Amino acid sequence: MTRLAAVFFVLALPIHAEVIELPRATLAELACAPAIIPTPSHEHRHRHVAQTLLSVPAATSEAQTGVSVLQAPQLGTNFFSASSRAISPADAAGAAGPHNIVSAFNSGLYVYDRSGNPLSNVSLPQFWSDPSITSGLYYDPRILYDRFADRWFVVALYDNNFKNSTVVVGVSANGDPNGSWSRYRISVGSDIADFTRLGMSADRFIITANGATAGTLFWSVTKTDAYSTLTNVQTATSFDTDFMPVTIVDNSTTTAYLVTNNSSGSAALWRLDSGANKPSFIATYSTAPWAELFNTEIGPEAGGQRMDVGDTTMQAAVGRGGVIWAAHSIVSTTAPVHTGIRWWRIPMNGSAAETGTIDDPTAATFYAFPGIAVNRIGGALISYSLFAATRFPTAAYAYRDPSGAMSSTGILKEGETPPLDARWGDYTTAVVDPANDLDFWTVQSYGNSQLWATWWGEIRIPAPPARSRAVRH
């Protein structure tokens, strides 16, 4: 969604937010829920606002790392996910489990088996159906699969005519996303929230959103509460906007990390301690600066129109083995103006970081809307959208192997036709496959004759050679 401008004064939120529990239900039961009357969408306001610059101590500049080109890893199972002529954009969130793949879009939740066969779907108003809610808008969903608990956790935002936003949460009873879900509404207070982000540590889920009268709003939920009955949600605030919570994929730490950036070339590492009313700064890193554009239509497209390339705030962040990987779009500061992807590899202890860029200096190809995931051998997959005058909007990816070599671009789904809307969405998703902790799954939008269409794909990574153990004689 478009970002909301921040007005700088202290917002007095309670340390514990009000939680309303909704009846538990299966997806089949929720699919029978009635529709609600939609209210004006956040998605088409197209508010072009300046990004808040972070006030953090100066840091040593980290040079961009060089890369060598490898062949893109093989695309395995891949399939059509969903499309829409009524709701835009997709906001393509998703998660992979050992038996199911789940999409969470502005149009609803979609469940598939791992071969891509559709099993069920519900709209967001159906999923969070509540007899007291007869109108309004659900938007910006995010979803995670916690492989250590075999549970799914999904969040979104709700408001009615831009008033009194609510965070809505769903928690599966087990690893079957078609089964029973616990559902909750969490009060935001008098503020309007926008652009949900979701991450998790070994013991907590962290939800963030930008506020209309504050920078960032935070909600912290322990897994113990989420997986029983959610009653205790701690809140925090910050003057700065666009905090991206880190998802710890190896269950290695209970520290809740967050990352931010700004166009001066900086990325900053933060943490949110349990019970804290604001995040704590850890370190900042600097590289080449970039320009700012917000939901601006500059990306070329074969149909002749210009596509929305999103903005330059942190789009995705994951951590494992003491390292955080993050990615966001950048805009060139020199002609020809174009967009690329900046990735970061940041040690959790705040020591020296690496950063690099996926970019076409000729501006023949624009890169935007990155997702990022990391596997057990330390390889990172970066998903992104491609825009070019010679092709329709295309879903793509690249892989950085454990040695530091970056692959060429792999194509998840080539664009087919000009889309009906230039508004391309706010995020794509890449996740490591919990079945082997080596391969990846990614879901992204691509150009077709709808407002948007989305495609899932499995990215297969060759298994590392088995280690041989020397025998002493």
Fold and architecture overview:
The protein has three helices and 35 strands. By secondary structure, it is an all-beta fold. It has a six-stranded mixed β-sheet with strand order 1-12-11-10-9-2. Strands 18-24-25-26-27 form a five-stranded mixed β-sheet, with no helix packed on it. Residues 1-14 and 44-67 have low confidence and may be disordered. Strand 6 (100-105) and strand 7 form a beta hairpin. It has one domain: 7 Propeller (Methylamine Dehydrogenase, Chain H), CATH 2.130.10.10.
Spell out the CATH superfamily: YVTN repeat-like/Quinoprotein amine dehydrogenase
Largest sheet: 6 strands, mixed
Number of helices: 3
Low-confidence stretches: 1-14, 44-67
Gyration radius, in Å: 21 Å
CATH architecture: 7 Propeller
Shape, principal axes of CA atoms:
globular
Write the layout of secondary structure elements.
Blueprint: E1 19-26, H1 27-30, E2 37-38, E3 69-70, E4 74-84, E5 93-96, E6 100-105, E7 108-113, E8 118-122, H2 124-127, E9 135-146, E10 151-159, E11 166-172, E12 180-187, E13 193-200, E14 204-211, E15 216-222, H3 223-226, E16 234-238, E17 244-245, E18 247-248, E19 257-262, E20 266-271, E21 280-286, E22 297-300, E23 306-308, E24 316-320, E25 323-331, E26 339-347, E27 354-358, E28 365-374, E29 380-388, E30 391-400, E31 406-407, E32 410-413, E33 429-432, E34 440-446, E35 452-460
Parallel strand pairs: 2-9, 3-31, 18-24
Antiparallel strand pairs: 1-12, 4-35, 5-6, 6-7, 7-8, 9-10, 10-11, 11-12, 13-14, 14-15, 15-16, 17-19, 19-20, 20-21, 22-23, 24-25, 25-26, 26-27, 28-29, 29-30, 30-32, 33-34, 34-35
